[in-house]
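Morning F.,

Quick status update on the modeling queue. The single chain you submitted on Monday has been processed. Sequence for confirmation:
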Amino acid sequence: MSLMTDKQTLSDLNIFGKQGSDGVYAIFNNTYTRGAAELLEEMFRNPLSDVAAINARSGVIRAFAAEELPFPYQVTWFDAAEQYLENTDERSRLNDQQDSLGRKLNQLIAGDNAYKGIERGVESLIKILQTTVSFAGAIRERLKNIPHNNELTVADTLLQLEEIQPLLQESVKQKLSFAKVAEYDKILRFRQRDVMKQLLHQLYLADVYLSVAKVAVTRKFTFPVALEKTLQQVTLEDFYHPALTSPVVNSIKISLSDNVIFLTGANMAGKSTFMKALGIAMFLGQMGFPVPASKMEFAVRDGIFTTINLPDNLTQGASHFYAEVLRIKNIARELSRDKYLFVIFDELFRGTNVKDAYEATIAVTSAIARRKNCMFVVSTHIIEAGEVLKEQCSNINFVYLPTLMEGNRPVYTHKLTSGITADRHGMLIIKNEGILDILNPKKQ
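Structure tokens below.
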């Protein structure tokens, strides 16, 4: 079962990157094979929502990270094998007549591109099969104490097939005869094609986990622990945005008694980065992947939805405010289904006037606060709304990112603090940049 999410959330969290910039996917993609890169993308597009599946995947990656395990294959083998297995045309099957003709016209057959492709595919799959014998043994040893590790041990079963045994004993140091290529082709491409595809998938999966494990080791990411969704809690310690080279870490706890985080802070204080970092940690946690933090325990969600970088929809004549309204409406529909969701709203109703934004922020925040089965992060510049919500809702955790002043220069700590801030330095920044001096030059 997959986590519910959407394109807006993937864009907000920069999962796949945009406009040429690297995304979260790129951080984890150190795979050797194209098949593994595609499988990794599929995992990012379909995070998990089952506690056992998340913890099982996390346990396997943790085991791989405990001790480096090499990927003992040549990438070209997989490319040749994939191309070979895609040709299921019965007319391309090698037969005895071709064998006889081949013996008479050896030079002609040697130059036949179709035959060469089959020969290359057969040889590549034999090398993959033989290499997998030892590789599967290493994986089996690594995962012997990991519960629910069946995902990668399927390769052992496939290698036990009786029809595969001659290929495991075949010498790969010398060129195969036409007769053997024809014999093995019948096995690999026709009778056991599904088995071969399944084996390749297992190896791509191992490639993905090795890649992710390497990221965990080199970046010192932590492995999350998934909890039952009804527990309604998150513990995140020293987490940060993975794209930052010198990040300021923060910690947060979410529980049933304070399932709404109300975040305030001045412009440039780091609210959006904080929310993206939190959203990415939750997203990676649902995948069973290591996260940029020192500790993470979280109640599994049915869905994650964010509203951070919401664009105007000019093609439909929608203003930014109306785009916000439609986005909130869509998320409200998901909330009405009584699912366990994690939702981020960055600066609610920034596209309208202050009065409407104030009233709407109070109305929407107080409404979502009644959804005790979900978790919310709401940021705003309208600190007056926070004072009203303090009186109306008991399950809101008010936090802010402070700004310190060094003379006329604001200094941003990016360190989360309890409470509501009154920091407003927009006009000061405008003055410090000399914009008014440019627009109003002094008379000579």
